[in-house]
Write a structure and sequence with these properties.
2 strands; two-stranded antiparallel sheet; MFS_trans_sf; Growth Hormone, Chain: A; about 400 residues; mainly alpha; about 0% strand; transmembrane transporter activity
Amino acid sequence: MLQRNFLIWLLASLFYAYQYILRVIPNVVVPELVVRFNIGITEIGQFCGLYYVGYVLAHIPVGILLDRFGSKVVIPICITLTSLGALPLVSSNDWSYFIIGRIITGIGSSASVLGLFKIIRIYYHREKFAMMFSISVIIGILGGVFATKPLHVLLDKFGWDYVFTMCIMLGLLLALTTFISIPKVGTSDEELNIKNLSKVIFNKDILLISLFGGFMVGPLEGFADAWSATFLHEMYAIDRHIAYSISKWILIGFGFGHLLLPYILAKNPTKHYEIIISCAMAMIIVFLLLFICNISEFLACVLLFIIGLASAYQIAFTAKVVSCVKNDAVASAGSVVNSIVMSFGYFFHVIIANIMNFYWNGEIIDGKPFYGADVMVKSMLIIPICLLIGMIGFWLLKVMSCKKS
């Protein structure tokens, strides 16, 4: 029984890692996309951001389907969608199909976190939930960490079609294995609890927390997803292969933060706002250092690690949201809040791409677009600006909370 439970949890965790790899693929293939399809940076921003559109649109419906039909049916279908979303990368030269595929990948990926919630809740005791979910997140992050450079090497050695065909086949194999392994449990005949959804949607505190939390996702969902390696290469003339290796330190820091911040929060259970504000301030300082200083490779690793560590503010953020609702509305709160926050991923990708496209002079070196340090700074400046907005917002919420108490 324990071995079966572990296998089911591991498969769900591998799905989380798999979708994370497809999510950060733009960080590897952006230069090739620009040249191969003769497109601009605006289209790249759309390609990166539409993942989040699919993710957000499907998030609440997928949560409902998981409760209604169970993990055995919904999770394998979503793994299949996630992998088939990459099919246009090998079967088409039409950019519009790439866009559709990216949305499909986002739709399928929405079940990765929700599926983990469902499986851990069914197969493990409540007191083990936080530990098992944290380990799952770390597995997912490791997928993103260790996939970036190998993907770049494989693309250089075997070519585009071979690498993405293998990615799709691995996804389909994972879907089949998951379907075979998960027993048919965890279904429900209950109708959608509209009352719980309305409790969340009309809760002013939750909506404000979600809004300000969304302003703070830029370092992960705008920078790390697509532009960190390019930024390092063009700002500091770091070799592209080394830049890909350095960029993974954001995800390493993020994983470490998932171990450290729960401990800090356990010691300071009422300090949600203080933790979030401190993380925002740390990220603002790091981005300013990246913009104005000539950074060595070692210091770049340290600074990106700090960005990843501070991005784990999401733990305190989630805990604060949960504290705003009763137990029967926690799942609804999680779906709605995650949808709002993840929608900012589209915002950051589109804004960054449009700013970059506006200032780029069209220069291409060795078959790859060259933007220059000045364009990079102007494009990425939106991230610390939004971090500042989020930090001020949480500070105001803290002040209002103190007045209420």
